[in-house]
Amino acid sequence: MKQALTPVAEPFSPEVAAILENYPKREGYILQLFRVFANSIRFLQKGTVNLLDRDSPISMRQREIVILRVCANNRCEYEWGVHVAGFSRHVKLSAEQVEATCRTGVDAGDWPAEELLLIRVVDDLCESGSISECRLTDFQQTWNLEQQLEILALCGNYHTISFVANTARLPLEEFAPEFPAIQT
Q: pLDDT digits over 8-18, tens only?
């Protein structure tokens, strides 16, 4: 029997409803992605690491650059759009920078050096699961150990989220933008 990942519809079971109370909402709305997680109580409870808190050792802007780039690299338009809509203005990413997160080659002129390094590190991780030798020393000198682990965990976390959203074929949320036409 075919079993497709789809968002769980309300009414939720009491157990699912209780867990979803801890998930972020947009004006009371529970994102489709979180409702897909609800297909498994275990995954809903443990499936993704909650790194979107105020205690992160990297800046919110750095966090969003990592997330947007991972989602673009994984062609996860759903989650990319959710984060563009929810955070890009707050972290002061220009429209050009948001668009650039979807470009294969990232022009150094679009980003400060540290952010350009961050994008290239994410690209390395997405492509090979490791940071290239030519960037590893810069990565280690730019971010402390806690920050390095946070960046690696964000990449892994948003790979998982991309896999789930893409496999579930989630349509964009009403408020979320599409990938720019320039995506390569």
A: 999 999 999 99
